[in-house]
TrEMBL record, chain B:
Protein name, per record: Cytochrome-c oxidase
Family matches, as Pfam families: COX4_pro
Membrane topology: Multi-pass membrane protein
Main location per the UniProt record: membrane
Transmembrane segments: 12-32, 44-63, 70-94
Source taxonomy: Bacteria, Pseudomonadati, Bacteroidota, Bacteroidia, Marinilabiliales
GO CC terms: plasma membrane
Organism: Labilibaculum manganireducens
Subcellular location per the Swiss-Prot or TrEMBL entry: Cell membrane
InterPro entries, per database record: Caa3_sub_IV, Cyt_c_oxidase_su4_prok
Length: 204, 95
């Protein structure tokens, strides 16, 4: 409209951030519920869960953990970079985050396709011959890592959108709440993986 | 006032140290679980995961530097989850 529209721009940084946190809490409760389902079934079928967990590749799991932890650091650093008014570094750090997320998904692709080629997927003939506990383990494995992977894809889209805003100077050193929020979302994805990794890959 | 809130800039170095700590805990948990310590394996792995998530929440997610209000809310959610897990297992262990 007019030039002074910029001066009394309506903005509520605190509110935006609080909203993001409340959303994150709902996500934590969603995954928390799934973790409870997992632990109860593990408690009821200890032998089958032990057998099934041996099938998972700890190396891929560890590699993906390292990838996600590094990507969490880069997105956190991008917030410092924007505060130091270093636009280029902000964009580089966000780009690295997205690249690492893609690397995570590539790993996940190989992991899942490996399992599927061995005939392990929900409803497969091989799995139907296995015990009830193994069916539950792989059902939960696909559901929980799949839901987590969906969050990775959404996180990448969110970060890419904020990157565009940084390029257009709509996110700057004094106005970066949306960057903080995309960072919070990304850390949530990391947080969930921190628990998924030991539960599925480490504890056998 | 609002500006004051946002002027806290976390140093890059802090993040690097946190990442090193997180990676260290990851490799420790991989090593511990490969040792086969029986029932302690699960508790050790979950304890390390808990420490890692605390670091992510406090430093990466800025709960340590933001208003206390956010940290209190986050703690309540984890407390709620803890209670639900506790009650669920009271049921399954003693039914």
């Amino acid at each position: 409209m007019s030039n002074h529209a910029h001066i009394d721009e309506h903005r509520d940084d605190e509110g935006a951030k609080t909203g993001m946190w409340i959303f994150i809490f709902t996500e934590l409760i969603l995954f928390g519920g799934l973790f409870i389902v997992y632990s109860v079934y593990r408690y009821l079928n200890p032998a089958a869960f032990h057998l099934a967990a041996e099938e998972l590749d700890t190396f891929i799991g560890t590699a993906n953990t390292v990838i996600l932890l590094i990507s969490s650091m880069t997105i956190a650093m991008s917030i410092s970079a924007i505060q130091y008014q270093n636009k280029k570094l902000t964009l580089i750090l966000m780009g690295v985050t997205i690249l690492l997320a893609v690397a995570f998904m590539v790993n996940k692709y190989f992991e899942w396709s490996g399992k599927i080629s061995h005939g392990i997927y929900p409803g497969s003939p091989t799995l139907m011959e296995a015990s009830q506990g193994e069916i539950l383990f792989f059902g939960l494995y696909y559901a929980m890592t799949g839901l987590h992977a969906l969050h990775i894809i959404i996180g990448v889209a969110f970060i890419a959108y904020v990157m565009r805003l940084v390029v257009k100077d709509e996110v700057q050193h004094d106005n970066f709440t949306i960057l903080e929020n995309s960072g919070l979302y990304w850390h949530l994805v990391d947080l969930i993986w921190i628990f998924l990794f030991p539960l599925f890959y480490l504890i056998t | 006032m609002e500006k004051e809130q946002h002027t806290h800039i976390v140093k890059y170095k802090t993040y690097v140290f946190v990442l090193i700590a997180l990676l260290f805990m990851t490799f420790t948990s991989v090593a511990i679980t490969s040792l086969n310590l029986g029932p302690y394996t699960v508790s050790a792995a979950l304890l390390l995961a808990g420490c890692k998530s605390l670091l992510v929440l406090l430093i990466f997610m800025h709960l340590k530097f933001d208003k206390k209000f956010y940290a209190i809310m986050a703690a309540s959610v984890f407390l709620l989850l803890g209670c639900v897990i506790f009650i669920t297992f009271l049921d399954y262990l003693y039914r």
